[in-house]
Amino acid sequence: MKLKIQDFASGQTTDKFNFKLDAIEGLDYAKTVLVNGSITKINDVSVGEIFIVSGSYSGEIKVECVRCLKEITQNIDGEFNWRFLDPKSYRIHLKSLKEENEVNPDEAFEEAIDGEIDIADLIRQQIILDMEPYPSCENFCDDDSDIKKYSDDGIDHRWAKLLEL
Predict the structure, then answer these.
(1) What is the pLDDT of residues 12-69, one digit of tens each?
(2) How far is it, in rounded angstroms, from Cα 37 to Cα 18?
(3) Which pLDDT belongs to residue 121?
(4) Closest Cα partner for 44 from 116, 130, 106, 128?
(5) Distance between CA 145 and CA 6 in Å, rounded?
(6) Above 60 in pLDDT, residue 11?
(7) Whole domain around residue 63: which residue ranges?
(8) Are the C-beta atoms of 79 and 55 separated by less than 8 Å?
(9) Integer angstrom CA distances of residue 164 from 153, 155, 159, 160, 161
(10) Is-contact 38 8, C-beta < 8 A?
(11) How far apart, in whole angstroms, are the C-alpha atoms of residue 31 and residue 52?
């Protein structure tokens, strides 16, 4: 889903959106991801019009257990909050930043490329950031024979000479 920032030029300041994501590149869904949110336009004297996209998402994705490689489902629930500037204002904002500058959350903006904000891509990025880094089966894996087979804590004989140093 893409939102065009020119739709807000008429003076409208807030718009709500609700939609379902059935597929996003690189993620397999076990259950449709539901997205609820809003986009708000704020006029700021220093940077121009700021578009704040915020909301929440929930659903289930398919991932592999890092121990047994079995496909499992993982619940995903999260919130997002992004701030955008139109391309012209974004370039001006970048020029105003100093070479070495601390990142202030109130000054962190993204560019609305070609005047559009791709909500589906934002949700994909947020899901990846919020995902558990090492998903695994609950408690124990059903088949842990490979785990036991390769869990030898012995020293690899190829590295034995290095231990003598």
Answers:
(1) 567 788 788 776 677 777 778 888 888 888 877 777 778 888 899 988 888 888 878 8
(2) 6
(3) 82
(4) 106
(5) 58
(6) no
(7) 2-163
(8) yes
(9) 19, 13, 9, 7, 5
(10) no
(11) 28
Q: What is the DSSP string of the chain?
A: -EEEGGGGTTS--EEEEEEEE--BTTBEEEEEEEEEEEEEEEEETTTEEEEEEEEEEEEEEEEE-TTT--EEEEEEEEEEEEEEE-HHHHHHHHHHS-SS-PPPGGG--EE-GGGEEEHHHHHHHHHHHHS-SS---SSS-S--HHHHHT---SPPGGGHHHHT-
Residues 102-129 have a mean pLDDT of 76
Q: Which residue has the tokens 């999260």?
A: 78
Sole residue written with tokens 């842990």: 144
Tell the burial category of 6 from Cβ atoms under 10 Å away from its Cβ (0-12, 13-18, 19+): exposed
Indicate the pairing of strand 116-118 with strand 2-4: antiparallel
Q: Total structural domains in the chain?
A: 1
- Environment class of residue 117 by beta-carbon count within 10 Å: exposed (0-12), middle (13-18) or buried (19+)? buried
